[in-house]
Amino acid sequence: MRTLGDMSEVYAARRARLHDQCTAAGSAAALVSRPANVRYLCGAVPPGAVLLLGPVQDVLVATEVPSAPPLSAGPPRSDEPRLLVVPGADGDPAVAAADLAAADGAESLAVEEHDLTVARHRALGAAAPRVRLADLGRAVEQLRLIKDDEEISCMRIAGELADQALGELLESILVGRTERHLALELERRLVDHGADGPAFPTVVAAGPNAGRPAHLPTDRRVEEGDFLTISLGADYRGYRCQVGRTFVIGPSPADWQVELYDAVFAAQRAGREALLPGRAYRDVDRVTRQVLTAAGFGDGLEPCTGHGVGLEIDEDPRLTPSAMGKLDACVPVTVEPGVHLPGRGGVRIDDTLVVRPEADGGPELLTITTKELLAL
Fold this sequence. Notes:
This protein has nine helices and 17 strands. By secondary structure, it is of the alpha+beta class. The radius of gyration is 23 Å and the shape is elongated. The model is unreliable at 71-75 (pLDDT under 50). Keywords: Aminopeptidase, Hydrolase, Protease.
């Protein structure tokens, strides 16, 4: 892992790249408000903090003093943002940042319109009426797309923590326990093993609920003969990783369960093998759908086969039929096809992988829990 000083240089380089993009687009200042984007550019910061990339100096505006130095240890670097603390009861850090940009002589300010409410956007305009507000768009998200070694290392550890929590649960008695109880136990195990918390609300879906995406656990109890779908993720130092598996409860699966599982497994394998640099996003989606359609499960498939993951659990790119763009090396994505049969249940298999060229061994699997159909 890098030291705080090393990371300070990384954050400075990221901010410099964004500065260059803003200057090329005609804005000498930018306001970054999306929490994951602020973290990407500054490190761990207080909740609600925003970053002003100003014409004079970069400023981190927050409503509280960070509990630890967010950027580096030791004397401040000349390229580090200045910290400005505004009382939360007296105003919005974004509004304070816009006012500061105007005071520093900015003629235009690029803002993340996709993150701002209409009311907040109006408040920025009112605070700096002489400053033209432009759209920064998803410039920071595009910078976040390709991960460096440190980011991937954090995600690798997050994957190990999720695998460990899931593996331990599978060694316990599951019959008679509720979906909700199992989800809470998984999240507790994640934290016990060193995760900062779950990457998203844990999915535990039994019987007719199995295979549903983002199913919220209920008081439905696990029964013999059920499919049991579990999807969980760990948050480690801000970076997420997720894994999802489907199991059969009882001594042996029924024929229809084996048939469905084999089809989803084949589709997921096809999607994983397609994760190579230069491959179109839509092609990865297409190969998974072709397998399921050929097996007779093409009706009602979900609109997304997978997505990027990192500081957020759902990032760019999107692996969908209409997605534009091609994969780059060092981009982590999920491949998570699923089929749900109403009233019966379903199967979902989910892995997080890093796109790698074939010369480097192909896609790197970050989640390694077995994908064999286990009867528990």
